[in-house]
């Protein structure tokens, strides 16, 4: 099961109003589904978004960088803390279009760009995950993925596998094979084998990975 963590109250740097950030105390990945693009759908361990939309002014903000003004523990109702911030509203997940506009404005921090481009990749693939259809990447997704691979470090096993997967989805099968034919740590071998098999069959769609 998932146990909630404290709710952190922050002040939006754009409008000054209060945003509540719900955190998770603990969870697990039981029953999770894993995908070749690295996305994990785990209902017992929901995704914690770092870039969120302010529910008051719709500005995208990095939640951990917004000034913390309070914290309501898991049983806030009991302590009365929950009443201290009546204006606070929950942070919203950005829409696909929000990410696109955000990238359009330019990001100087590579680590943040990595985060946003990974999100864009995953969100684009969510449509394919839900429909089960392998629709081709659109021009924005292609551009995003091409930029994303430049942020990955081939010397790191995780990054190299992710890069191979991105190249496979871009239809660059020879380049992907070149990376997949290298040595990986044991933990990744099953995923490498699944992705390499798809790559050798020249299949480019995101695919659910079922481990033995
Ligand atoms: Zn705001």
The structural domain count equals 2
Radius of gyration computed on alpha carbons = 20 Å
Give the biggest sheet.
4 strands, mixed
Q: Averaged pLDDT, please?
A: 90
Poorly predicted segments: none
General form: globular
Bound molecules: zinc ion
N- to C-terminal distance = 24 Å
Per DSSP, the total helix count is 7
Report the sheet-strand fraction. 15-25%
Secondary-structure element pattern, one letter each = EEEEEEEHEHHHHHHE
As laid out across the biggest beta sheet, the strand order is 7-1-2-8
Helix content: 25-40%
Report the count of strand segments: 9
Structural class: alpha+beta
Describe this structure in words.
The protein has 212 residues and is an alpha+beta fold. The chain has 2 domains: 88 residues, no CATH class; 108 residues, no CATH class. It is built from 7 helices and 9 strands, in the order βββββββαβααααααβ. A 4-stranded mixed β-sheet has the order 7-1-2-8, with no helix packed on it. Strands 4-3-9 form a 3-stranded antiparallel β-sheet, with no helix packed on it. A hairpin with a 6-residue loop joins β5 and β6. α2 runs antiparallel to α3 and α5 packs antiparallel against α6. The radius of gyration is 20 Å and the shape is globular. The mean pLDDT is 90. Bound molecules: zinc ion (ZN). Zinc ion (ZN) binds next to loops.
């Amino acid at each position: 099961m998932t146990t909630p963590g404290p709710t952190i109250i922050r002040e939006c740097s754009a409008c000054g109003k209060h945003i509540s950030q719900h955190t998770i105390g603990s969870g697990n990945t039981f029953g999770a589904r894993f995908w070749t693009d690295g996305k994990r759908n785990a209902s017992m361990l929901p995704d914690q978004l770092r870039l969120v939309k302010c529910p008051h002014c719709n500005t995208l903000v990095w939640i951990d960088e917004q000034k913390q003004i309070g914290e309501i523990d898991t049983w806030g109702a009991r302590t009365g803390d929950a009443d201290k911030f009546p204006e606070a509203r929950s942070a919203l997940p950005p829409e696909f279009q929000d990410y696109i506009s955000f990238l359009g404005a330019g990001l100087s921090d590579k680590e943040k760009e990595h985060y946003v481009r990974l999100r864009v990749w995953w969100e684009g693939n969510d449509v394919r995950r839900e429909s089960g259809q392998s629709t081709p990447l659109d021009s924005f997704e292609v551009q995003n993925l091409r930029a994303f691979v430049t942020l990955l470090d081939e010397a790191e096993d995780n990054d190299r596998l992710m890069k191979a997967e991105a190249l496979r989805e871009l239809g660059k099968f020879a380049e992907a094979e070149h990376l997949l034919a290298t040595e990986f740590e044991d933990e990744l071998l099953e995923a490498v084998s699944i992705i390499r098999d798809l790559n050798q069959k020249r299949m480019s769609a995101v695919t659910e990975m079922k481990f033995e």
